[in-house]
Design goal:
The chain has a domain of about 35 residues. Helix content is about 50%, strand content about 5%. The chain contains 3 helices and 2 strands. Strands 1-2 form a two-stranded antiparallel ribbon.
Length: about 55
Amino acid sequence: MRVITYSTSHHRSGVYVEYLPTYSPDLNPIEHKWAQAKSKKRESGCDTEILFSVHMV
């Protein structure tokens, strides 16, 4: 669904509001990072807390 309202300040500035489907993990960048983290966890057989502290801190 695309919502465009004409003659408003955000339309004149080139800003468009795009509504995403309720469940759209492919369009959410953080979901890709979570998938990478889960993949690393599976590959290493490491505990989640250890992986988090190594990669995020």
